[in-house]
Amino acid sequence: MEGKPPVLSVKGLTTQFIGRKNTSVTVVDGVDLLVKKGETLGIVGESGCGKSVTSLSIMRLLGKNGRVVSGQVEFEGKDLLTLEEKEMRKIRGNRLAMIFQEPMTSLNPVLTIGRQIGEVLQLHTPLGWEERKKRTIELIAQVGIPRAQDIFGEYPHRLSGGMRQRVMIAMAMACHPQLLIADEPTTALDVTIQAQMLTLIRDMRAKAGMSVMLITHDLGVVAEMCDRVLVMYAGQVIESADVRTLLRHPKHPYTMGLIQAVPHNARGKKRLYAISGNVPSPGEWPQGCRFAPRCQEAKPICHTQNPPLLKMKDGSECRCWLHEPIATEEAAEGRDAI
């Protein structure tokens, strides 16, 4: 993916929600990310790390209590955060599409499948009713749903979870998006259906030449689907690398813990590995490194100063004081050479 232009460039994204007594709580804190043309970027981390809020901030779907307070979200040469809502609606669902985490709550229970997919085409294309119906049936068939003509007139509750998720993919792909954001697309699906969903997304990415931003907590999905990975914790990016580097040579203790917690890494042990403690809630982030209270390698500085995101020798990035001396030595060597 080297040398390919970015489809999406996010810089310094900070998102807040209005909490109790009208106080502001930061949920996403200074996130930078880049999605290149034709690649799949994975965003991983436990629940509560800010992954979904990052995607909703990009799509500008935060609701009345959420707001982006700083940063840039550049897509196809436009800063999405500066657009009027009318202009944003032309992009959302058209050039920039999203598959949401829970298809049953994302689909309207009182509208037919055909009507809901057709609305996307009605909003973003000049197609007439007959052409929209034909295209909708084609989309239903393309995502692997049998009896496409019959499903056109069905309601969401008549479909299984896997079929509803396929409908969400059909809606997202209706206008050939440049970038697809998939937020936990395989949650609550059984293993066989999960594999089918991932294969479908990968095949459609290859056919359409689009980019994908895949949000997940499953490192198996990351290994299978992604070119590069961002690891998030407590609202920040704490590590980023290409997928092979991250899985083979993780640098942050949190990333190491996530990999160790994968069941197949237990190798016959009686108990699976688990990272102690929980992700701190927004507004309750500790002083210093936000992972320090759960980290077995924390030093005194980790509890007082939050480390910057440092560039490593192999091109990856890591937010950890364990690597700070190496970066300092390199910088010193560079100054001596000058």
Question: Which tags fit this structure?
Answer:
8-stranded mixed beta sheet, 34% helix, alpha/beta, disordered C terminus, 4-stranded antiparallel beta sheet
Structure characterization notes:
With 338 residues, this protein is an alpha/beta fold. It has helices spanning 51-59, 85-91, 103-106, 113-124, 129-142, 148-151, 161-173, 191-208, 219-225, 243-248, 253-260, 324-337, and strands at residues 6-18, 24-36, 40-44, 66-75, 78-79, 96-99, 179-183, 211-216, 228-233, 236-242, 310-311, 317-318. The protein has an eight-stranded mixed beta sheet with strand order 6-7-8-3-9-10-12-11, sandwiched between helices. A four-stranded antiparallel beta sheet has the order 2-1-4-5. The longest helix is centred in the middle third of the chain and has 18 residues, at 191-208. The chain is globular, with a radius of gyration of 21 Å.
Short description:
This protein is α/β, with parallel strands linked by helices and 338 residues long.
Distance between the amino and carboxyl termini = 33 Å
Computed Rg: 21 Å
For the biggest sheet, the summary is: 8 strands, mixed
User: H/E element string?
Assistant: EEEHEEHEHHHHHEHEHEEHHEEH
Shape: globular
> What portion of residues is helical?
25-40%
Determine the number of helices (DSSP H or I, runs of at least 4 residues).
12
Low-pLDDT residue spans: 325-338
Report the strand count.
12
